[in-house]
Amino acid sequence: KTTALLAGAGATRAAVVPRTTARRPCRGQGRSAWDGAMSVLDRSPNALHERVLLADGSTVDIRRLDAGDARALTRLHRDLPLRDRWLRFATVSREGIEEYAAGAATGEQVWGAYLGAELVGAVHLAVADHDPEQAEVGLAVSHRMQAHGVGTALLERAVRESARRGVREWTAEVLAENTAMRRVFADLGLP
Fold this sequence. Notes:
By secondary structure, the chain is an alpha+beta fold. The protein has helices at residues 70-78, 82-89, 97-106, 150-164, 179-187; strands at 2-7, 39-40, 49-53, 59-64, 110-115, 118-127, 134-141, 169-174.
């Protein structure tokens, strides 16, 4: 596994190496280290939804998920091909997906990307019990929407929103073979 630590203000270096941490420098006053990763059409701090322009010219709406999105979140994870499910959860089993989705959707730290009425990606941040300034990131993007910028846009939004709530460090455990997820981190400035 590779663990990446994405840090907010005060970070001094960037690197992703197996079983160590990486830090993302924060540049610009009052801006997220993640600003500029995607072309976001609505960057206002009070926006409930963001419309994001993807690499293929299509747009997705990114918003916080709630209990009403639990079925869509279940469907997103359940419909992942075996390989994608392995890369996301380190298991191919579908057992526990409904419970995970129901619990995640009722939390305050889950954002989803909708292409029309279809949930095509979700990012879940779990704030650490021992330190409210740390959160672990989990990301899933439907197979057909991978490599379009959905994951990058979701991470950008989740990090920006959670930073407003005091989170300063984000970690993610990524299997070394998960080149797509490592590429998302690289797109955000992590080597």
